[in-house]
Amino acid sequence: MTSPFDELLPATQRALLHRIAVAQSEGRAPSFVAGVERDGQLVWTGSRSSVDGHGPDADTQYRIGSITKTFTAVLVLRLRDEGLLDLNEPLEKHLPGTGVGDVTIAQLLGHSAGLSAEAPAPWWERTPGSLRPELADVLGDQSRMHPTGRRHHYSNPGYTLLGSLVEAVRGASWEDVLRREILEPLALHRTSAQPQAPHAGGWAVHPWADVMLPEPSEDLGLMAPAGQLWSTVADLCRFATFLAEGDEGVLSAASVREMRTPSVPPEAGEWDSAYGLGVQIVRKDGRTLAGHTGSLPGFVAGLWVSVDDGVAAVALANATSGPLTGVVAADLVRIVAEAEPPIPEPWRPLPEVDQELLELTGPWYWGTSPFVLRLDADRGVELQPLRGNGRGSRFVAEADGTWTGLDGYYAGETLRVVPREDGSVSHLDLGSFVFTREPYEPGAPVPGGVDKEGWRGLQT
């Protein structure tokens, strides 16, 4: 049975259409197509075209440029999860002879390896990959731009190395591995390394006149893992949902969450954006968006997902420059999230009560700072300050009776209950921080009470 909330309201649909109509008109794009996915369902698509009656639909292929990097990153994370490599290992261990093998796999994924942004001339995006038959041709003589691991510096050659790494470990071509391990399991049947009809043609639009020039569509060769792919609105919306939720047949929810976590500090002045592992992260309109933008001659693309809102959007255009597809995709997320905020699930009590855990709930004190411990599902707990912006985290239960922090200041830290000799609870220990039932509780470890005379007033 279809829920009435599966479809967007007419006013929301009109706002979405208006946004892409303005983008196509002001950006002077031959065509523009976009879509929105909510809670894993494609709920809206729309397009505008300069040719009446020939508007693209959700299954029309466009080239997606650097969104390809996110697919390549998924392949690398799969190798890590299978135990075939460690992200902190040097590239040289698995792909020797590059000349930059001391950089780590994680640094390549997060663009902190210090490598050059582009391959040596001629411009790799507008020339055939046959001009760069070897990795040495991609890296060139001046491949090091910055100290390794010190700053974010976007590198297309870095993702060429990651694609070659995938090939070396799997013993198959990047394209074959991609199809077998991502495209087929996620049913992305309209995503491919070469264009498949129906597909848009790439165009350059003159900056000062309403005339166009066809752009060539080159096979990028070794550079393919950095920007080769063609895809559709429908496929990319499905991929965006995967980036939010994961898929046990491809990559777990924990691993895609790791991809969405900033890997290096942002550049000065760019505190609203960061880069994870093959994923761009931005703060816009008060929400966090994860995804990627992309461009190649003749095409621009944008994909964003707001995990908290359960909304993803994709925008594609066939113009070398002009349409701001990344901005538009973010605006489409905002329009839906603000016009139709998600309806919370009904509150339900826990299926069973653990009396020992229940006794741990309520107020705890770190020194004089009050915190509260609450129970979550699956024996998880949450420790949050009662006032102010103190440090708090959610914790997942472990088999040994401890908890591991999931987020916030205590991410990865261990929370454990410390008993007294009689078996009663003395205090909570969280990474050496002691939480007691009373402020500076006498007899508790630091920061327990110290002064034997206890609390006093001004005149004491």
Task: Summarize the model shown.
This protein has helices at residues 10-27, 67-81, 105-109, 135-139, 156-170, 174-183, 224-227, 233-245, 253-259, 325-339, 355-360; strands at 31-38, 41-49, 62-63, 203-205, 212-214, 230-231, 273-275, 280-284, 287-296, 299-306, 311-317, 362-366, 369-375, 381-385, 393-397, 403-405, 414-419, 425-430, 433-435. The chain is α+β, with helices and mostly antiparallel strands.
Q: Calculate Rg over CA atoms.
A: 26 Å
The largest sheet has its strands arranged as 12-13-14-15-16-17-18-19
Task: Give the averaged pLDDT, no decimals.
Answer: 93
Specify the number of helices.
11
What class, by secondary structure content?
Answer: alpha+beta
**Fraction in beta strands:** 15-25%
Q: Which segments are poorly predicted (pLDDT under 50) over 5 or more consecutive residues?
A: none
Could you give the distance between the termini? 72 Å
| Overall geometric form | globular
- Helical content band: 10-25%
What tags apply to this protein structure?
7-stranded antiparallel sheet; 19 strands; alpha+beta; single chain; 8-stranded antiparallel sheet; 460 residues
